[in-house]
Fold these 3 entries.
Entry 1:
Amino acid sequence: MHPAPSVIFFSVFSGLGFGLLVWLGLGIPAVTGWSAFAFFAIAYLLAVGGLISSTFHLGHPERALKAFTQWRSSWLSREAWCAVAALVLTGFYGLGLVFLDTRWTILGLLGALFSIGTVFTTSMIYGQLKTVPRWNMPLTPANFLSLSLAGGALLAGQVSEAMVLILIAGIIQAVTWLLGDKRLAASGTDMASATRLGDIGTVRAFEPPHTGTNYLLREFVHVIGRKHSAKLRLISIGLMAVLPVVLLLLPFHHIIAVVAVLAHVAGVLIARWLFFAEAEHVVGLYYGKR
Amino acid sequence: MTTLPNATDKKLGLVIDLDTCVGCHACVISCKGWNTENYGAPLSDQDPYGANPSGTFLNRVHSYEVQPAQGEAQLIHFPKSCLHCEDAPCVTVCPTGASYKRVEDGIVLVNESDCIGCGLCAWACPYGAREMDAEEKVMKKCTLCVDRIYNDNLPEVDRVPSCVRTCPAGARHFGDLGDPDSAVSKLVAERGGVDLMPEQGTKPVNKYLPPRPKDALPEFDVLAPFLEPVVEEPKGFLGWLDKALEKI
């Protein structure tokens, strides 16, 4: 799949932002006043910034409101509802904390629920696709959710929780990669099933439909990233999980914490780039590619 | 509404005969022509006369070489367009309701004025049947020429999809695959028509007729086995050359 920067930034930063909102909604840390303002500002910048970034890949962003209509069937529509509900609920909750010094517990819990729901619905947009076997497994939502909660804990300054969650997220990430590598072969979709010519013999793509490229090849057949996949995976897991945990084990200092956050985010960005770049869409089989 | 209908009154679709298709791409051109000039946004081209031409097509013809375990390789031309699936994954993922499957005839269409161009339907389609138009930024797909098949202004012979009307080999057939007595359904039954990627669970309406088994090649000359080979070992100068070259 084509790794579109807008979608990579959206899913990473909104994941972090909504992850932080989950912790804030649960009242961890129990901040009020200006320190609450700072936490909510960071969470909102990440979550809303990510959402705005996601509209850059739309052909017609001016019609985006229509995306709220099909929540019965579409995970993308459900994501839109969850995101708006989470932002509105945590927005009022934040107003109470910042300006009234009041904690509306139920509002916070509901906000946390819809925040985690937003990350889950985002992950299901990918996880539902049978056409991309690497994504079509329960580990995809587990991967997104664990990274979001771990990153949120890191941003919320919850050192001990963050260390445990980052380790869990790192393990889930590694398992997602290893099992994901076997998914295309396990899906049973290959050139023989795509063309149904396998009963005659071995199928080889002889001639593509056109001499030039097309939308399908640009969007779905991206093979450049796979060359350095093993190295990038190691770099990603090192930055995402190993380095932040080592840094958090050191005596606490704000600069160390900032480096831990930056390393984690860089690692997650690489992992998300690989998530798209390594994903094989079955339509590539019609072109003899994967 | 992007939830799928439980059942459709008809299942209009295409039957494509891989035995007959000669790979001329006439269906590609006629599809592009009709669908650029008629219903919906035109099918644009980018850099059509330049170094890197690319464009939107609703129908593309692939060619495959199939090598049997024994015998000659076969070249099979393979037209591919929207299969108007019964369980169309492209429809249910649409967040806006722009994609829908019609209850009356099962045609899968895009309401272009509702399409936000998110591309998710193309991601959900295993067949590459949907292409985002780079000019109009909306999703384009085969409409089964919905503006021809019910068009009373056209002579009756033309009330079939443009690709079917154009095919010079008669490799494309159009009809109601939900009616077991229709000509296309009988053709599918007779020739053992198949679904593409059945494991994807999309239940495509369009069917593909597999190539018929090839005739065995006859011996060119019945006397050939009785003839002596002309030269087994080279002699004279060629024999010396052969030996000299072997030694080097």
Note: Chain B touches chain A through 68 residues (CB under 8 Å).
Entry 2:
Amino acid sequence: MPSDADLSPTRSFQGLILTLQRFWAAKGCVILQPYDMEVGAGTFHPATTLRALGPKPWKAAYVQPSRRPKDGRYGENPNRLQHYYQFQVILKPNPPNLQELYLASLEAIGVDLKLHDIRFVEDDWESPTLGAWGLGWECWCDGMEVSQFTYFQQVAGFECAPVAGELTYGLERLAMYVQGVENVYDLNFNGGEGDEKVTYGDVFLQAEQEYSRHNFEAADTKMLFRHFADAEKACRLYLDAGAPESEGARHRIVQPAYDQCIKASHVFNLLDARGVISVTERQSYILRVRELAKACGAAWLKTDAGGHSGDRAAAA
Amino acid sequence: MPDLLLELRSEEIPARMQRRAAEDLKKLVTDALVERGFLYEGAKAFATPRRLALHVAGLPARGEAVREERRGPRVGAPEAAVQGFLKSAGLSSLDQATTVTDPKKGEFYLAVIERPGRETLDVLAEILPGIIKSFPWPKSMRWGAASAQPGSLRWVRPLQSIVATFGPETETPEVVPFSVDGITAGTVTRGHRFLAPEPFEVRRFDDYVPALERAEVILDADRRKDIILHDAKDLAFARGLDLVEDEGLLEEVAGLVERPVVLMGSFEERFLEIPAEAIRATIRANQKCFVLRKSGSDELAPAFVLVSNLVASDGGAAITAGNERVVRARLSDARFFWETDKATKLEDRLPKLDSIVFHEKLGTQGERVARIAALAQEIAPLVGADPALAERAARLAKADLVTEMVGEFPELQGLMGRKYAALQGEHPSVAAAIEEHYKPVGPSDRVPTDPVSIAVALADKLDTLVGFWAIDEKPTGSKDPYALRRAALGVTRLVLTSHSRIHLIELAKKLVGVFEGSISEDSIWRVAATSSDEFATKPFDREEMLAMIASDLLAFFADRLKVYLRDQGARHDLIDAVFALPGQDDLLLVVRRVEALGEFLSTDDGKNLLAGYKRAANILRIEEKKDGRAYDEAPDAGLAASGEPEERALAEALAAARHEASAAVAAEDFAGAMRALSRLRAPVDAFFEKVTVNADDPALRKNRLLLLNALRAATREVADFSRIEG
């Protein structure tokens, strides 16, 4: 049986995840599980995109498996993956000491701030598909980008009021750093040694190879084009179906509609990886997803969690 | 005299914005002070990643008292006028005003307003919040709980604290009493984020700078740059290496650290098989590190210089090791790109260019390449290049845009193409042209010398120019988004340095024809219409329109050439004088003619002939106006022969000079043409001295005017002398 020490963040991938979860749980975050859909980044999780909108305070942290079909390298590149993990923290409104909290979280996972050079390097974040942007930094540890730090200014085309702070840790990179490993597939996943050791490669190498083939060669583009159109249609359909029944009433079907927006976005990424979307079309696809995201954001603001102040229709 | 110390401490300010922000802060505060009558002795602003600071020295403790007399309405004026006067002068009743008597207009009210000088401290407290709230950051943001409300403070990143003190050196300065969005100005700041995070008090600029240094912060960016450069050179020297200096990178890195610590890392020798430019690009762009050369050689060394923000407890060993690991990963990527790219021949990449849009109205990169290839082939003989090689080079010139390496480092375009071309065994001129066809990029960039490079570079730029001309995307004012001025200057320099003979009008016309298919008729018509008022109204044929676009473009070239030659010291009036002649679309000949003209006009013969020309032109202008006719036919040789000897001599000299000048121009011997004209000086001088132009005999007068016109015509063989000044 592995001992407790194996779960230290510097010895195992899962130890790193557990440490970050504990750290942020102790700061009052709800610890969520990954969203059960294919997304390009932790930001797509409704716990970030939708919850960043509206006046209600919100603190959450979660791991999100993220898919970037174009980044597949058939398992041959030691640093690039088409599927990887992000650890996402969202705090609304951002606390005044968010940078200090972030640095404390690095210390918690074994980065000695007396030994390592941590830098906040300008990086303005923008997601054209989500109609979102924010200002912040790439956080560097000894020259390596280990996190993204963003103060959300706008999401789904709406001003964030208040502003949420978003931290995104690239878990594989961080783990490689703290474990001192140069190839992602060599990461110790479970903290075991000898026969007990399971590496990142044991878990994901075959998947990287298969998905690279899928993303670049096999993915059924006809079906995907159809799926894109279907998801777009369904998103609109659900938003219409849940639309407020009267002026000032609540919207009733936002999250299922937003799921379709996420789906459209991922399908677009797959089509893009297959190289079947021309440069000019590309822009129009991005715009179509953005329109969905905006519609979902607008609807979200008419829900309880989105801060809708009361069901005037019901009250009347 | 008291000083102001202002510090605005925030979360990390983007490096590229720091210097400008410091200057803006200085200007805004000092302008606001001066505007209110507060003069100062000196001001200096500073920036680090975490603070903007401003020191304004030698301010008065209080402003000067102001006494102002304000004249009011006439005594007995309507009540409304009196009330308005009282209000504007700040009086409560007329008792507070005096009256004065104006000898012409009678008695008036007069208010004497005396304002005591304001405390500088109060004025600062009034000025500073507004400056902070409306600070001109290129991009700013809201944050925290306050951002729930509209109109909350915006800053480049969250603003953490404000220090603002004012007072003389000898006393404890006072805090400037103000607050902005819940942040109250005080005396407390913090040092280096990791090395001295504890708060401490500062009083004035003189103790602020050393206090920051104790807290491991070097306030002055130029000092940080000096330290980095000096230490980097020292480290390099100690290892027998040379630092590859890079001012842009140095400036950026100095904006990423408050306390620079320079370290050196290394990577495996085997990575040096990657092209040096790619190594430098990846280490610079991704890691913000400097590369090194083996001492006294052009070869890169397997080492780099990094600048950290931390005096680490292990002397920087962990930081160096970490950076080395990242550099290694980056170089592995670069090597992967290099190897992957090498596996595909450049020509096999061409189909991909068909899906890259160059410009919405000008088609894809693929179409552009086809046009450039055809044009390069056509230009090749004019510049002494092998047409087949030029065509080949043009065809491959853009292929590297779809390589992995250029996708990752766009600044390597051309250069990588050259490397890949050389590797796949292309002719050396073809490989060189792939890199050099972008040149010259700016006025000081090198102009290629290989004829193949010249042909492709010309084709590339002409295609761009004609294309954007055809779709009416010409530069206007300061807007030149497609860098067309640069392209035209490039063509000019290419033609002149290579002594190439190219008729731009012909080429441009042909090219516009090529674009005809890909652009709408509307846009051609519109361009033609804007080129000339006359075209807007009269029906016109297509040929004429194409020519119109071409000649409009030529005028643009003429302007560029003028700028270029003026920078070289040529007189702009001489350039105008040459361009005023018809059909001047061969830039090389234009320049030669300008040169010959300049030389001629610097001789006595030239100066006097110009004077003679001006005199003749003046007389002609006056007499032609008087008579209401032009004297533009040939003079009667017989009549001239029977006239005064000087008249006869001039007529003969003119006939000979004109013939000789014309022949010389045809032979492109401009110096010869000038020599021919110079022989006119003596007869012209003699003519004006002895002969009366306005003779009583009308036939004689007419013929003498025609002689003057012949002089005007003779000079037009080389230039339009009317454009020449002096």
Note: Chain B touches chain A through 51 residues (CB under 8 Å).
Entry 3:
Amino acid sequence: MRMPLSAIIGLVLTGAFLFVGLFAQFIAPYPIDSAVGGVWEGPSAAYWLGTDTIGRDIVSRLIYGAQVTIFVALASSILAFSLGSFLGFFAAVRGGWIDQTLSRIVDLVMAIPSLIVALVMLSVLPLNLTVLILVMGVLDSTRVFRLSRAVAMDITVMDYVEAAKLRGEKQGWIIFREILPNALSPLVAEFGLRFIFAVLFISTLSFLGLGIQPPLTDWGGMVKENKDGLIYGKAAALMPAMAIAALAISVNLVADWILSRTSSLKGGRGG
Amino acid sequence: MHPVLKLVVQRVALGLLLLLAVSAVIFLGVEALPGDTAQAILGQQATPEALANLREQMGLDQPALTRYFQWLGGVVQGDLGTALTNKADIAQSIGQRLGNTLFLAGCAAAISVPLAILLGLIAARYAGRWPDKLISGVTLTTISLPEFVAAYFVIFLLTQVFPIFQPVAMVFPGMSFWAKLHAVALPVIVLVLVVLAHMMRMTRAAILNVMQSAYIETAELKGLTPMQVVWRHAFPNAIAPVVSVVMLNLAYLVVGVVVVEVVFGYNALGQYLVDHVTKRDVPVVQAVGLIFAAVYIFLNMAADVIAIVANPRLRHPK
Amino acid sequence: MADTLLSFNNLKIEATAYPPGEPPRHVVLVDGVSVSVEKGKVLGLIGESGAGKSTIGLSAMSFGRGGVRLTGGEIVLNGRDIRTASAGALRDLRGREVTYVAQSAAASFNPAKKLMEQVIETSVAHGVMTKAEAEARAVSLFRQLSLPNPETIGNRYPHQVSGGQLQRVMTAMALCPKPDLVIFDEPTTALDVTTQIDVLAAIKRAIHETGVAALYITHDLAVVAQVADDILVLRHGKKVEYGSTDQIINAPKEAYTQALVSVRSIDHAEKPQAAPVLSVQNVTARYKGTSFDVLKNVTVDVAPGQTLAIVGESGSGKSTLARAITGLLPPASGRITFAGRTLSADLAGRTKDDLRELQMIYQMADVAMNPRQTVGTIIGRPLEFYFGLKGAEKEKRIQELLDQIEMGKGYADRYPAELSGGQKQRVCIARALAAKPKLIICDEVTSALDPLVADGILKLLLDLQARENVAYLFITHDLATVKAIADKIAVMFKGQVVRYGQKTDVLTPPFDDYTDLLLSSVPEMKLGWLEDVLTTRKMESAGN
């Protein structure tokens, strides 16, 4: 089986971001929060990407920012995923009023844009990591719910599931042996998309000043800190902006590849 | 009743019901979350007596449901309450700002809709060939950008590298239409970029879906010219899905506009909302949140209604 | 020849396939086919799926679907080679000299436009006649094709008329511009058998009366025998045999053609009546939330080691009966006894032995097997589940079952996607056999297969029945299959059993009207059958 170049690039970059995030403490050349140079210095041998609005090394802050951004995005997408896919499968297999109730609640939440719901919620909730992860995870779980319910519904009407029911198999076997293996690849691709969404979401919230609070930093917050420099031709704000774009694009490339393989995976091991 | 009318009435009723449910979620949901409005106003040092006084004054000692219906009654009559922070009438503060937001979103829609349809047509016409790959590649990139990131790239490019525009978008009453247009040019460009990608991709998919139908092959096998095939056979069937796509993406614009207003310091509804979230001014947030939700629900409803009306099977029942 | 309309000379057609996740693959669809059609004659193109018959048909308009390319040879239409003709020249000939009737008229009509507008479009666009003339001609064609309300049917939208009618409207659309040649691409395949016969008769009459030449593409030799003057038999994109219809049907030379002609002629003597293993008594059933009985007072039974065939068209309730017996749709009233015990109405109330002894095989083997499980797992699961077999013992039994379905070693590790259609159905049979059942419900198990493959499956089923003494409840719409396999027959119509008994009794006159219609509608492999039937049958089909 051959892997397209775009998928390889995506995988390598995604891996690199994860690595940097995981080992930020060991990689970053300077501490996260100390002013080591002048304000908005240009790139130099000491500060590869220059310094920020109060003279901190941008590369180091990007590396620490990667840690926070990826951690929050990963945690909330894992939450969204576990919650959404569990309830989605549950609704599909059980049907009846359970399905109806869950689906109507999800319809209701999805009737309003996530950002607006998040803003409304954050106007009363305290701003800390746990709250952010919970709010983002719960809001995004609605999308996972819809997808996994639809995928599971498609599979439950298949004759092989009926055959298993007629054989007398228990619910556990039907969910884990008949449905799940066939639902896996669209769900894996969806996880990638949910992760990107979470990265964009947390970055946007931080940019609006409603996400990660100092002394911690993430990429969205870094854009906010340095945005005023742009008017004076200081490109510092573009560095975290590019990091967000690069992470989102690389995960997108991987998800695209998985999605395109979904149909061939359906037929066994593939060629 | 004609089935189309029946379905449309059903869909509109559903939209209204949804809006009612959303208003309940916005009001009661916020009530249910941990957090104390009185505390938020008076701060951590407030004495219990002062807190109790304020609660009574604001009616916070009454049951949540009672206050919800009072609030809803006010909203229906155009009374959105007063802001906690400056005691200003919320409806009044919103008026002018809503106009500014609609102006900005309207400009973005006026450019992005025809452009997205045109690009979608081109991409679908050359599906799999280089114009399609180019358009798809570029849009895949812009889809991966959050609004504010796209905004700063555009700002840097168009105010620094090529200094064509001002980085701040100020509009005020009494400004001429043209001056306003010039002022919102940059935020409009950003919004267009952000909405265009989704809209164009979905338009392309909708058109391709129609072009792959068996009846298009029938038309080709009739020896019709490509123009006749598109105009007589593809267009009448593509119009409903495309309009639907456009509506859905205009709803998406609602979110984009909030962030873009903040980026450009554009004095409108989104900026107003974010400001008051920061200040924890709950009544303002609830009122503005409800307005955004209403616009979003309305656009989604419109998309469905158009799809229903345009369906020949429903329009001409058996 | 002066009167040759169309000739293919050494035609070669290729395509590039793009399997997802794999490098593109080059395939030859048609290789070195030469044949010609004379003015006013009908050439039948016959073959199984993948034979390249539709591809050749479309190439008569120099059209390739998707990535299909006409890469070699000549396609001579009215004296000129059209294979390499310009786009403009092709537009000129498509819809004027050659027209097309597709298998699925329902998908081939633009849903947003009235039928008349679409029927006359070609005639007007090519300047063959004025709008008024074209409309007049369309109405007369509608009448010729025995469509109801020929004057006004053109004002309707495609979804407002039935499938059989739509197929005839499409024929009118093809004939309207007075073409030299019409391509019929499986025009009756998607229709119920009693509707098929009317459409077939209408097409035949219209061809005859307009004097047009035609390419008639089908997988059903009995159908093509009714309309074609000559027949070309194709297999894997190559010519197998070409000759007059009479010669192909009555004296086929090639072994493959002989097999196609003798298909469905399995001789099965009915077994004597015996005490039943399954007995369905007065079963009435309806779907949840509806007030309409899909099964009305159905009473049938099956003897051990015998086959009861349930015959009917779509909507007759035959598959619903299977759901009622398996417990998926608990009957509203009535009783089902099996192997001497009364079965619980719903699935949850049945014992493991009830479930084991009553197995099911489905129409679409593709979706009846979990694509993520190997053949070994699929067959092994019932062994493990019902008999607790494990390890070597299980492997041995799996191999025995694979041998029984005539699939050798090495298949246990394969996934369903790596099997052919016939092999997939065999694996499903093995899975059912693994449970050592007393009865297997076979729901249209051969309908999705090519005739020769279907024949193989039927022979296998008969063979297994003789060896294992298993009873079959065989659901089908195809009477030829019934004759080949049944001991008893129940004919179903609108949820009721209208005729029931031993095979010979059911198939011997006098018939009730519906059974007569159903029996007489099944195309027979003989010339002139269509004419005979139309003059003798009693009831009009539902499609009219």
Note: Residues 263-271 of chain A have pLDDT under 50 and may be disordered.
